[in-house]
Amino acid sequence: MKQEEEQVRHSHSMIYICIIAVALILGGFQVITNQYTTDNMKGMSDNTDALLTWTVERFGGTDARIVFLESRTLPQVVEGGMEQMFENDATRGAGPIYMVEFADYHCPYCRKNQSVIMELLTAYGKKIKYAYRDFPMRYHPQAIPAAIASECAHEQYRFWQYWEELHNVPANTYDENVFVDIAEGMGLDGDVFRQCLSSDEKFNEVKADYEDAVNAGCTGSPCFIINGRAVIGAHPYDTFKGIIEEELAKYECTGDTCQQI
To answer: Domain spanning 67-260 has what CATH number?
Structure first.
């Protein structure tokens, strides 16, 4: 009997020891994970602080980026034709498929989805009239400075090359020098470009894009409006292809020239 009791006590002791050992291991793992996260984020945090300071210096004593993002209204579908969503923005193609992308340059899903968009534009040629518009998320602090920089490239008629170059640069490295270096590397006037970065006009253009996205019903980035149909989020090629083919079925096309049936 005593031997059985000893065995039971021994078994319980082993269980307690195992529990304590697992707890210590998990606790140590958590400490290591937390330290890794802290170390890994420190560089990004320093860069973010610099970018926020840059934004405040450019646009006054308040962080205008947060002010206008917090003042967003409830989504309402924009009434009217797709043409109004292309005003003052760089476009590619001619239609009859009108495709507007609302996105930000820091958004990982937007960046990942860029290859899909390029594939669509190659496959359908001028049948797609495509515009990129800015929809910077508040948790992507690099998005607004990058959006302003792309608007400055548009002012010198090189938006699409700059758009591609921004997607090739890690978003957490964005700063004013990076934006200017990209511009000068493309042959743009660096002095004019740097002056443009501090323009209230370009900030207001980004703000207008954001408000149009909200009014169109976009709740996150990327957000696409294709002939009035909203597609929110990053999707594979076949998803977009299905929508485009449905819209093209309403037209009779010869090459890139289409007439509505």
So the answer is: 3.40.30.10
